[in-house]
């Protein structure tokens, strides 16, 4: 999660909402990304989705059953749906997202009878993950 | 929707679950795609997501407020979440998806208090959209 936080910090420096994500398989980081929505001008360029696409390319399959995704912020519905579609085995996220979180906040996607139900852990480095977001939005408001 | 059906048929010929999607803006088709999940070995390569990414590139923005997405099958949670994130104004889909549909079947994403609530119409060319899927799965079972 420290590495995911560093990716979030890099995103913030580029004017992006600071979220970082990485995918681990057999103890090895096989994909990592920060949010790129503004730079790519693309609605799908969230950190989790980019990391999952990289991981699919690394594994050579759309199935990431034996992978764990680490992300600083609770995934939105798009990213939670991507996690289900990619059969990601486990998700570890830092802090909740009261506005768009789809793993317990606004809705809880893993509770629905879909093709796959990932394991979910939350609260890892929670304070740091929240702080990087709060700092970003504070600096925006004072600009 | 006839064009979306043709894209679905093309996907079937490539061994993909036949789903086709396109994005229309000011009466003009600005993006179109069929499902490519198997060929791309990528969990995010659904027709809707690919069409939305193309549309963002065409418009030069992650906001597709004045666009309509046509898709043969009810969007899954990932694609419904992408529709919300991209602020797609309106979605028209053909037939329901009882296994993974996120616009009324398994869940109804537009009913949650998220950033955006697209207009949704369903049932356009419903029988044809269902038939292309049924034919694909029938031919798979007999192989």
Quick description:
The structure is a homodimer of 143-residue chains. By secondary structure, chain A is of the alpha/beta class.
Report what the structure shows.
2 copies of one chain form a homodimer. By secondary structure, chain A is an alpha/beta fold. Helix content of chain A is 38%, strand content 21%. The first copy, chain A, contains 5 helices and 5 strands; from the N terminus they run αββααβαββα. In chain A, helix 1 packs parallel to helix 5. The model of chain A has no long low-confidence stretch (mean pLDDT 96). At the A-B interface, helix 2, helix 3 and helix 4 of A face helix 2, helix 3 and helix 4 of B.
Outline type of chain A? globular
Helix-strand sequence of chain A: HEEHHEHEEH
pLDDT averaged over residues of chain A: 96
Largest interface: A-B, 40 and 40 residues
What are the segments of chain A in which pLDDT stays under 50 over at least 5 consecutive residues? none
The helix-and-strand class of chain A reads alpha/beta
| Strand adjacency order, main sheet of chain A | 2-1-3-4-5
Largest pleated sheet of chain A: 5 strands, mixed
Put simply, the count of helices of chain A is 5
Q: How many E strands of chain A? A: 5
Taking the alpha carbons of the first and last residues of chain A, their distance comes to 29 Å
Strand content range of chain A: 15-25%
In quaternary terms, these chains amount to homodimer
Q: Name the helicity range of chain A.
A: 25-40%
What is the CA-atom radius of gyration of chain A, in angstroms? 14 Å
């Amino acid at each position: 999660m420290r590495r995911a936080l560093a990716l979030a910090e890099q995103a913030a420096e580029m004017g992006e909402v600071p979220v970082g994500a990485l995918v681990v398989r057999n103890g090895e980081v096989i994909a990592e990304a920060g949010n790129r929505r503004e730079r790519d001008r693309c609605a799908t360029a969230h950190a989790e989705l980019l990391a999952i696409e990289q991981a699919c390319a690394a594994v050579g399959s759309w199935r990431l059953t034996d992978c764990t995704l680490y992300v600083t912020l609770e995934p939105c519905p798009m990213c939670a749906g991507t996690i289900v579609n990619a059969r990601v085995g486990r998700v570890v996220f830092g802090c909740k997202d009261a506005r768009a979180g789809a793993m317990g906040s606004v809705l809880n996607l893993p509770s629905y009878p879909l093709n796959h139900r990932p394991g979910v852990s939350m609260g890892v480095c929670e304070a740091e993950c929240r702080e990087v977001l709060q700092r970003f939005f504070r600096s925006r408001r004072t600009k």
